[in-house]
Amino acid sequence: MQVYTVPANKWAVFTARGSLNGKEHQINALWTRITTEWFPTCGYKRVADYDLEVYGTGHTNSDDYTREIWIPINKK
User: Fold this and answer.
1) What DSSP string describes 4-39?
2) Which of 36, 37, 58, 70 would you call most buried, defined as having the most Cβ atoms within 10 angstroms of its Cβ?
3) CA angle, corner 32, sides to 35 and 52, nearest 5?
4) Whether the Cβ atoms of residue 34 and residue 69 lie closer than 8 Å to each other
5) CA 55, 57, 63, 64 torsion: positive or negative?
6) Segment holding 51, helix H or strand E
């Protein structure tokens, strides 16, 4: 393992819920919505070359399994 220091930022956080067992992975659909719907209209821009995908605890096959996308942002 390696330790990375993530600088303080303002973050846009998006949540996806549902089983990871399906053919369509909801995190991919969420990325598509973020890049095609949210960023073009939100007034913010990405400020780094990284983002975080956070996968929660719990059963990944559960319909209410939660994961998040964290993207560092600044006003345009």
Assistant:
1) -PPPP-EEEEEEEES-TTSSS-HHHHHHHHIIIIIH
2) 70
3) 75
4) yes
5) negative
6) none
pLDDT digits (tens, 9 = 90+) for 5-36: 988 999 999 999 888 887 667 888 899 999 99
Structural domain including 32 reads 10-75
Q: Which helix (H) or strand (E) holds 42?
A: helix 39-42
Confidence (pTM): 0.86
Dihedral sign for Cα atoms in the order 37, 38, 44, 45: negative
Domain membership flag for residue 5: no
Q: What total number of domains does the chain contain?
A: 1
pLDDT, tens digit, 9 for 90 and up, residues 29-66:
899 999 999 999 999 999 988 899 999 899 999 988 99
The set of residues, in sequence order, having a beta carbon less than 8 Å from that of 55 and lying 6+ positions away, is 67
